[in-house]
Write a structure and sequence with these properties.
It comes from Trichocladium antarcticum. Keywords: Nucleus, Repeat, WD repeat. With 378 residues, this protein is an all-beta fold. Helix content is 1%, strand content 42%. It has a single domain, classed as YVTN repeat-like/Quinoprotein amine dehydrogenase (Methylamine Dehydrogenase, Chain H, 7 Propeller), CATH 2.130.10.10. The chain contains 1 helix and 30 strands. The strands form 7 sheets. Strands 1-6-5-4-3 form a 5-stranded mixed sheet, with no helix packed on it. Strands 19-20-21-22-26 form a 5-stranded mixed sheet, with no helix packed on it. Strands 2-30-29-28 form a 4-stranded antiparallel sheet, with no helix packed on it. A hairpin with a 5-residue loop joins strand 19 and strand 20. The relative contact order is 0.15.
Length: 378
């Protein structure tokens, strides 16, 4: 697996810098576009990627984040050895390794142009970096945070994005300028999410046990709604309402808000009034990764182990083993507890999970990246 130097690293004089050359058309053998409900029980681990550039007895690095581009044709990971890996979905192959040894990398996300990405630094400073992958050159740095960046959230339809940080600020940015365009001072604002319209964004604050909703056009004003997770926790332990939050995400239909946790379940909230729709119980142990903003425990962080399927009906979650799937249309009982509808077997820990936005394909990882596809014979 050849490595490509980015301009931030010291490049040997003889090092070549090949362009990012990836076949973009999906053919008949690409992932399925069948309705999600028809294929969810049939997903199987299909393609395992192990880094063949790891030598001299070194362990495989941890995958910190997984992201797909808008067309669903490329998959990208950021990893604990300070590299970015890009994979071709149709061909099921690794295509490119990008190095960021000088500043580190985590939370890598595609912009709406598949040839550019943003990611957070892990060394020297807390800048966010904007990279053109076709020639491995930086377009600009977004500087301002003086604490660890815990979350990046790209606007669904424009070049704006949100960053959250342990410096207790939320900053709004536009890819076209290096200066932040807005700033909010909040207590532990570690997670963010846009609603599918892009008119509303949510900020999760574990220390206050609350999720704050803002009108994007008037975010300088107070949040128009505040959800009290402690009040809405249902059968969850009260401790789960104040710590170990791993993921915040709106469903694509805008009706639900998913708050992932490291505990024994995830919160599925009504996105309009904040009421608990269901507590998604994990039947086994959760992952070993740190939650957003956590530094204790000596474990590795991740960008979250749960997500919605594109149809908004299913929630997927990793665990110590297996991939858990809840059907939220089943509805929780009077105790608001909902057990997984499907448990998809996987012996490895599934510490990071992402569902392809355009096709029936799932990617999971701990140290190794796994592609999941529906089994056509089931």
């Amino acid at each position: 697996m050849a490595s490509t130097f980015m301009d931030i690293d010291d490049v040997p004089a003889a090092a070549a810098t090949p362009a990012l050359n990836i076949t973009r058309a999906l053919g008949a053998n690409g992932p399925s576009m069948t309705p999600v409900s028809d294929v969810v029980p049939t997903f199987r681990p299909t393609k395992l990627f192990q880094r063949d550039d790891i030598k001299d007895g070194k362990s495989q690095p941890y995958v910190l984040s997984i992201d797909f581009d808008d067309p669903g044709e490329l998959c990208m990971t950021s990893e604990s050895d300070e590299t970015i890996q890009i994979y071709n979905v149709k061909e099921g192959r690794h295509d490119k390794s990008l190095l960021s040894k000088k500043y580190g990398v985590k939370l890598a996300k595609f912009t709406h142009t598949s040839s550019s990405i943003i990611y957070a630094s892990t060394k020297q400073n807390d800048a966010i970096r904007y990279l053109a992958t076709h020639d491995n050159s930086f377009i600009r740095y977004f500087e301002g945070h003086d604490g660890t960046v815990t979350n990046l959230s790209l606007h669904p339809g424009s070049d704006n994005f949100i960053s959250c940080s342990t410096d207790n600020t939320v900053r709004l940015w536009n890819l076209g300028t290096k200066q932040w365009t807005g700033k909010l001072f909040l207590n532990t604002p570690y997670l963010s999410a846009w609603d599918p319209s892009g008119n509303v964004f949510a900020i999760a604050s574990p220390a206050s046990g609350s999720i704050l909703l803002y009108d994007y056009r008037n975010y300088e004003k107070a949040p128009f709604s505040v959800f009290d997770v402690l009040t809405a926790r249902g059968p969850a332990e009260s401790d789960a309402a104040f710590r170990s939050w791993t993921k915040l995400e709106f469903s694509n239909d805008g009706k639900h808000l998913l708050l992932g946790t490291r505990g024994d379940g995830h919160f599925l909230l009504d996105s309009f009034d904040g009421s608990l729709k269901a507590y998604l119980r994990k039947p086994g142990a959760g992952t070993s990764r740190l939650a957003a903003g956590e530094t204790d425990g000596g474990n590795t962080e991740s960008s979250g182990e749960c997500c919605f399927a594109p149809d908004g009906r299913y929630v997927l979650s990793g665990a110590k083993s297996d991939l858990l799937v809840w059907d939220i249309l089943k509805g929780a009982g009077s105790n608001k507890m909902l057990d997984p509808e499907h448990i998809l077997e996987e012996k490895r820990e599934t510490a990071v999970v992402a569902y392809n936005p355009r096709f029936n394909m799932i990617a999971t990882a701990d140290r190794d990246l796994m592609f999941w596809l529906p089994d056509p014979h089931v």
